[in-house]
Amino acid sequence: MCKQIMCGIAGYVGPRKAVDVVFDQLKRLEYRGYDSAGVAYLENGDINVLKRAGKLNELTGLMADGTPNVHLAIAHSRWATHGAPTDENAHPHFDQFEQISIIHNGIIENYLDLKAELAQQGSEFRSDTDTEVAAHVIGCEYTEGVALEEAVRRAVKRLRGAYALVVVSKREPEKIVCARNASPLVIGLGEGETMLASDIPALLPYTRSVIILEDDRIAVLLPEGVRVTNLDGQELPVTPLHIDWDVSAAEKGGYEHFMLKEIHEQPEVVRQCLAGRVDDKGRARLDNVFGQSVWNNTDRIVIVACGTSYHAGLMGKYLFEKLLRLPTDVFHASEFRYGDPVLSPNSLALFISQSGETADTLAALKLCQARRIRTLGIVNVIGSSIARECDRTIITQAGPEISVASTKAFTAQVIALVLLMLHVAQEKEMPGVRVEEITRDLLELPELAQRAMLAEGEIIRAAEKMRDAKLVFFLGRGADALVALEGALKLKEIAYVATQESPAGEMKHGPLALVEKGVFAVMGATESEMREKLASNIKEMQARGGQVLAITTEGDDLIPKIAEFVVRLPKSGSEFLNALLSIIPMQLLAYHLARLNGCEIDQPRNLAKSVTVE
Ligand code: M6R
Hints:
By secondary structure, this protein is α/β, with parallel strands linked by helices.
């Protein structure tokens, strides 16, 4: 299997100039990362296709004299998987008869077998893509007298893998037909217009009423609405969701980059994540999460996630073990799914994902379902696969996260984990857990997060000195060491700076050998009991020519005397919340270092927002 990053999909049928709409929608999906783009539109009974390798403006440049006055179009931005990023491999693709044109997100796993079969029947292919093979399969099924919807239904039964497929036809030029299995597809309903996209923000300027297409569904879009059927052709009722996100929440809102906007949104995100979840007695209130009988019988928590969500999972382990004394293991989803994990019936599996679509996490979830283990999700995107598949789900309520580098989602995930820990303590009646004190500290956190933003000046000063850093260590102890892992990931992915992350106490067991002039360390030092030990670690670094940016809390009079750069965070009554706050200066450091070095911040090289196929 190859690794695929999600592509952007857009489609429109209605009275507006359709090509303008789909270009605008693709633009709103640019954060996904892509290497080519294309459009297909219906004009005078013909399908016109334009596609180009490169950024969207390469494509829009082909219409510099104006877009056609047509009312149905589909468009796609591609991240190469099968075949290099060339004009030929860009979507849309025609079938063998040039009757239909399709765009696709996902991977057709049996495409080589299908390709061989089709070639025997006379198909000739112009690209190296699995998508063109899917187009030919639909072409085969789209015989005289068969409607496009039925042809798509028959075709998808022959496909294995993940797909969001969108198809237009010369024979039925008034409609768009789409099908979904495991790759996201959202339909928007407007007044006399209908549209689709691979993600909600692309639709928000046009409508608030959306349908999240489920797996194994076919939808037919006409200007007057949508018809959804299953693979047997039965029509299914649809209930649109009302999306109340502010459009500006999906746009940059005055910041130079989405990442900076999302970092600065964190005080509000904490507020949103807590909204309605702490009652007036100071107790946590999580609806729709398992109750007492389940928690009393749970003897182990298994947390599964990738990347930033994995780091949030480590904080979950810290909280569950330290405060609940509940054994907890955290797994990278990609390892878990192939690792034949030991799972007892009393284990509870917790899946953390911003997008809710990460392929490895979803596969791990399916493994747990097959083993009949209870599943709980912590997910940001409502209606996403992981949110829907888990027995119970806590939505993090962080709003759309556009920047590839996850920032506010991490904070929201950790807050959700704290709430979950409190919920379990309440259900298990554990008087040792100071629930009311912790909820009080949580409610103060938005204000503290706001004050943590004041670190930006010192961070910019440190970033200027670190511009040519050979290597940056991320160190800490306890919860600080966990947040340091996330800080290091930010610096790597955004600023392309090599990092080495480890608990500070491990330095002299090997990594210290890397320290010399030009090497820096970011030291999380929010835990007061650890400060003397951390002071020794700082001196170890400095003795070898290294310099240190220390993140400590107000009132510390030891670390600020010795570190070259110091950020003092406001102090929370709960030490693990101080550690959580330390992610803010680390995110700002990654951002400013990347900006100083001219990196493409919102779309770092080689990465994109959601990894929906293995
Ligand atoms: O959507 P998910 O939380 O499941 O995504 C998991 C990772 O792909 C994601 O956190 C990734 O590591 C981010 N780019 C980190 O900034």
